[in-house]
Amino acid sequence: MVDANDVLIINDNDVVVVDTNGAPAITREVLAELKKLTNKPVRYVINTHWHDDHIRGNDVYREAFPGVEFIAHAAMRDYMPGQGEINRRNFLEGAPRFLEDLKRAVANGKSLTGSDITPEERASHQSDIRLVELVLSEGSKAPAILPTISITERLTLHRGKRIIDIRYLGSGHTAGDLVIHLPNEGILITGDLVVWPVPLVGNPQSRIGDWASTIEKLLALRPTIIVPGHGPVMRDDSYLILLAELFTSVKKQAAAAAARGETLEEARKSINLEEFRKRFSGDSKIRKLLFQAYVAGPAVEAAYREVTGKH
Ligand SMILES: [Zn+2]
After folding, report:
1. Tens digit of pLDDT for each residue in 133-164?
2. How far is Cα 281 from Cα 283, in angstroms, rounded to an integer?
3. Stated pTM of the model
4. Which of 110, 151, 238, 275 lies 20 to 30 Å (CA to CA) from residue 39?
5. Quick one: DSSP state of residue 226?
6. Rounded CA gap, 276 and 286, in Å?
């Protein structure tokens, strides 16, 4: 269970917000913090993509700042009413059971995999419990707000002296990932194109074949400060280079498996991600679990589907 990073860009006369959390209750906390920093109004909310953990707090800004504009990729207007609604409903239906499993695991001193719980797993499960409870507390009441300004390539905001360059540089995590570049400050806000400690790969939403080249375009902007969709702020590009290497390798290995005529199940066995598992997970049990759930499983499947056209 994850919650997105929000970025609050305070300009000469207004504020631009990037992404808005997985629950309105969290965004209300963020807004309270913003009000301690400035009384300037929020003029634009940019959603890097349409996943619920980045958009559920949109309505908090609409209520607090009438007339605020919502900026997102044009594909969000197609996605949200259809597949997005289905995914949202499925999540809300499955969440109470997930919550029970987590609470039982913590109470019994067992991890979700059934082994004795480590301190890191306990902290992770407790964080999950808090987030799931927050999402469920307001359930489906948080309306999905569609962009009032949609873009497909690029939109540049000039707010006083500041330049806020909103770019679509290619797909990866979804088909509509926006990045926000502040060229004067050397800051790049990546949405879920970059997620720490492991990339969030969704099948069928993610595009493994494009992801590495999209990351290369992020690197070409030469950012000095990188704000990922989840995880701590990065001050060098080493993690992005690791991501590009991973996606390049998965794509290459999936193409080779397909050329050998392998089925998906055979490809799962022949594609070797051990080196990457070590580099992303180290000795951490929870990161190994995350790598399996969010990378090895869905990335291999998505890459295989892309090269063969088969599921
Ligand atoms: Zn996402």
Report:
1. 998 888 667 888 999 999 999 999 999 999 99
2. 6
3. 0.94
4. 151
5. E
6. 15
Beta-carbon contacts of 96 under 8 Å, excluding residues fewer than 6 positions away, are 136
260 alpha carbon to ligand 1 midpoint, in Å?
33
Distance between Cα 272 and ligand 1 center (Å): 25
Q: What are phi and psi of 198, to 5 degrees?
A: -135, 150
Compute, in angstroms, the gap from residue 261 CA to the centroid of ligand 1. 32
For residue 28, CA distances in Å to 6, 90, 159 come to: 12, 25, 24
Written as one letter, the residue type at 183 is: P
Q: Which two tokens stand for residue 111?
A: 């991890």
Q: Give 170 Cα–ligand 1 centroid separation in angstroms.
A: 15
Read off the pLDDT band of 82 (50, 70, 90): confident
Mean pLDDT of all residues belonging to the chain:
94
Q: What is the pLDDT of residue 311?
A: 60
145 CA to centre of ligand 1 in angstroms: 16
Cα 201 to ligand 1 centroid, rounded to whole Å: 9
Eight-state DSSP code of residue 195 = B
Calpha distance 254→262 (Å, rounded):
9
Percentage of the chain with pLDDT > 70? 99
